[in-house]
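Can anyone check this?
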Amino acid sequence: MATAELKHLIKMVNQISKNIATDESEQAVIDKTTIHIQRFWAGSMKRDIMHYVERDGRGLEPLALSAVRQLTKPRT
């Protein structure tokens, strides 16, 4: 079961991806959500949501889930 803090992070990622989704391709939403998390989230928040996705990931919308998974990929 997710803690209150983790539930808040899940809600935030879902909201970010939904707000970006207007007239954007799925990949653009994923990329922009990932960039937002990289730029504006504290390291502890990023670690918590990435760890959650590794363990479970339930509650995240598909595009939000993909964005968090993309955080773990090496940058090119």
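Reply from J.R.: I decoded it. Residues 35 and 76 are 14 Å apart (CA to CA).
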